[in-house]
Design brief:
Strands 1-2-3-4-5 form a 5-stranded mixed beta sheet, with no helix packed on it. The protein has a 5-stranded mixed beta sheet with strand order 8-9-10-11-13. A 4-stranded mixed beta sheet has the order 12-16-15-14, covered by helices on one side. It has a single domain (2-251), classed as Metallo-beta-lactamase, Chain A, CATH 3.60.15.10. It is built from 6 helices and 16 strands. By secondary structure, it is an alpha/beta fold.
Length: 258
Amino acid sequence: MNYRVFELDAHTWRIEEYDETSSVYLYLLEGEQSALLLDTGLGQIDLRKLVAGLTQLPVQVLNTHAHFDHIGGNGLFDRVMIPRADQEMYRLHTSPELLAQFPQYHFPAACTRIAWIDGTDTISLGRRTLELIPTPGHTPGAIALLDPDRRWIFTGDTCCRADVLLNMEGSTTVETYAESIARLQQYRPRFDLVWPSHHSVPLTPDILDLFQQAAQQICRGTAQGDRIQTLVGEALALQNGPIRVVYLADRISNQTSS
């Protein structure tokens, strides 16, 4: 795989790991005393060496969620923080059975030192404090990361300018996802730019409106997605402008959601 590095400011970088079929963004955030690497991608590049070339500070590693394309490089680091609610997801996405479905990749050994964290923790890097926000939906433990001084939010796979996949094994109900978007909306006065893990970057906060509208329509039963085929089977997909909510019919209860 290849990589590209984009400087967001003097102390923040977006690292893109990509090939002809996939692309994922990792973010390196530097404070005065330490730095934070948000996600480790597929683990197909020498990420530890790359990060060491960008910052000389000690580096903490945090996963936005435990899917294999966000945790693949965890084993290149001594210790990784992962949301506690994604423990089963981490077990599944480091299993030989699942990884064998991607023979084109050689995954490093999984990290053995894991700090299971709550989605409401804060992380201090020295004059740069980051706030974790729980956003269950795509996975039970998915989180967003607010950088209030820069007025940025990093959302993982919760709201890219594309599909949110709620049809994956272990994904939550649409109602739970709608609650997560409503939670992010509460933080909206505190950020101006949204940095997701895939597709277009950066996004403006009104991306939340599109996902909230679609999720609410599904939950209230006022709209239903079209049937589509995905890599993990048949699902429903409700389009709202440039985004879609992809979900399973048995993961809604047609009750009004926030």
